[in-house]
C-alpha cells in the first residue's frame, strides 16, 4: 500500500475526528488571513481578476469547516475589490482537494449552510459559487492547464509523498529526534526537496497567467532539525510506545520501522527550493508563532487538546502500522 492509500485525518465529526479537533489549524488560518487578503488585493489590477469565473483551489482541504471558512474569506475579498473597482463580481468555482481516503462526505454536509451564508451575505449581488471535490494527491496533476487563479493550501504541504528511504538507522524514533543520525536528517530534507519542487512545477502548469499561490507550512525556527521544538511531541509518543513494548503490546521491530511522512522545513529551505526551481517568484514570506491555547491556563486541559489533535491527524497512520488495538492505550500514555 502506498501512503496515498492510508493517509487521511480522522473521519466524521465525532470526538476523535479532525473536524472536531481542527481548532489549531483554524487559528493558523486566522493568522494568515491578512496575508491572503493582501495577496488577492495584489491581483486587483489584472484583468484575470474579472474573468467570468474565478477559480480557487484549496489543496489538502481535509474534512472540517476550515476549508469553507477560507473559501468564504476569499470570495468576500474578491467581491469587495470588485465593488471598489466598479466591476462585476465574477462567479466562483472552489475546488476542494485532498487524498482519496479523505472524508469528503463530511464536507459536503457543511455545504448547504455555506451556500446559504454565501447568498445571504452578498444580498444576491453575486452569482452562485460552485464547490467541487477534487480527490487525488497534490504530487500529481489535479487541474487543467492554466486554469487556477488562486491556489491556497494550509498546513498540508509539509506532508511528504512517501516516508523517505534510508531511515533504517532511525531506531526507536518516529520522526527526526535528538538521537537521529545525520543520514536520517538528510533523507527527510532530500524527500522534502524532491516533493516540494514537484509540487511547484505541477502548480505552475495549472495556474492561470497572473495567478497567485498562498501556502502555509508548519515550519521550524532552528536550522538544526533535531532542535525543533515540535519534535518533543513525537518523542513523547515514542516513549509511550516503548512503555507498551515493555508490556508486550507492540513489537520492537514495528517501532523501528515506523517513521512519519512529514517534514517541517526551515524558512531558508523553502526559499532555496523556490529559487532553485524558478517556477514561481516569491513575493512575500511571513513567519509567525502560534499559541493556540493561550487563553487556557489549565495545563492538563492543554495536554488533552494537543493529544486529541495529534490523534485526529495521525491515527490512520498508527493504525495501519500497529493495528487499531493499541490506539486508545497509545494516546492515553502521552
Ligand atoms: C492538517 S490537515 C489540514 C487541513 C486544512 N487545510 C485545515 O487547515 O484545516 C492536512 C491535510 O493535507 C492532506 N494531504 C496530505 N498529503 C496530501 C497530498 N499528497 N495530496 C492532497 N492532500 C494531502 C491530508 O490528507 C490532510 O487532510
Question: How would you describe the overall organization of this protein?
Answer:
The chain is of the alpha/beta class. The protein has one domain: Vaccinia Virus protein VP39 (Rossmann fold, 3-Layer(aba) Sandwich), CATH 3.40.50.150. It has helices at residues 3-6, 23-41, 66-84, 104-121, 182-206, 231-246, 252-256, 267-277, 299-322, 327-333, and strands at residues 53-59, 91-98, 129-135, 148-154, 207-216. Strand 4, helix 5 (182-206) and strand 5 form a beta-alpha-beta unit. Helix 2 runs parallel beside helix 3, helix 5 (182-206) crosses helix 8 and helix 6 (231-246) packs across helix 10 (327-333). It is globular. The protein starts with a helix and ends with a helix. The mean pLDDT is 86.
Q: What is the total number of structural domains? A: 1
Helix content: 40-55%
Could you name the ranges where pLDDT drops below 50 across 5 or more consecutive residues?
Answer: none
The biggest beta sheet, please? 5 strands, parallel
Bound molecules: S-adenosylmethionine
Q: How much of the residues is beta strand, in percent? A: 5-15%
Backbone shape: globular
What's this model, at a glance?
This protein has 334 residues and is α/β, with parallel strands linked by helices. The chain has helices spanning 3-6, 23-41, 66-84, 104-121, 182-206, 231-246, 252-256, 267-277, 299-322, 327-333; strands at 53-59, 91-98, 129-135, 148-154, 207-216.
